[in-house]
Amino acid sequence: MTLHENEIPVDESVVRSLLKAQRPEWADLSLSPAGAGTDNTMYRLGDDLLIRLPRTSGNGESLRKELDWLPRLAPLLSCPIPEPVHAGTPTNDFPLLWSVYRWIDGDEARPDTIQDWASFGADLAAVVRELHGIGLMGATRAGELSWYRGGGLEPCDEWISGCFDDCRSTVGSELDVDTLERLWRAALALPEPSGPQVWLHGDLKPTNLLVRDGRLHALIDFGGLSIGHPDAEHATLWDLPPQARQAYWDTVNLDTPAWTRARAWAIAVAVSGISYYWDTFPAFVAECRARIEAILMDATAR
Fold it and tell me: What range(s) does the Aminoglycoside phosphotransferase domain occupy (predicted)?
């Protein structure tokens, strides 16, 4: 499944060639697809390893920061995060950086893996507070650690306004795009956040939250790792049921402006996802639509 115009094709034969060239001791291990997101294609290697291959050159740069920073962040968090074990280099078959991590057992966060969503929301909030409380270790919001979601909303306004127009022409009357745009503009009217910048995971959606025995076990996919203001970190809460969202809010003790900006980021990611992936990734579009429906229902309830 190709999602981007400049995507680098990859299949099992490409992965085998990379292993033979750079880690021949792994070349004969079992290999099976382990999912594909918007940025990476993944394969499980044997029982204990995971290979991630970026779809585009831009995605490839995100691997470098994971290799640099995840080993430093891991000892400071109470839940597992990916452990890099090999930094792959470009070849003729695959001209980008790639990486291998320890496999982390667990299931995605979803209704059949979680029974107590309130406890899950509180657990997620506790881990997010841990991450946001880690010292910056000399890092700054620059270069690969300056992802847009840790900044202000205003620089995204022109782009997101175009996405609202796209959504009107695609989903049409099925979603209340006018209300979404009103909520976006209400957040734009707020002062910019003034608190300290923190470490951000960047994309804490359910597919990046691993569950074991019904409880949060691990955070994965730190491709959006950055330093910035924390509001955007909370945006994926609208991918979770209301009980989880309320427990998270209570645990983190978010004020109304932070919540309003977090909701605006949730809207931005959802409408831009619909706009960009409408013709190529229907499953992701469905995720974005579900998030929007939750936002609209939540806004009505409040």
Answer: 31-265
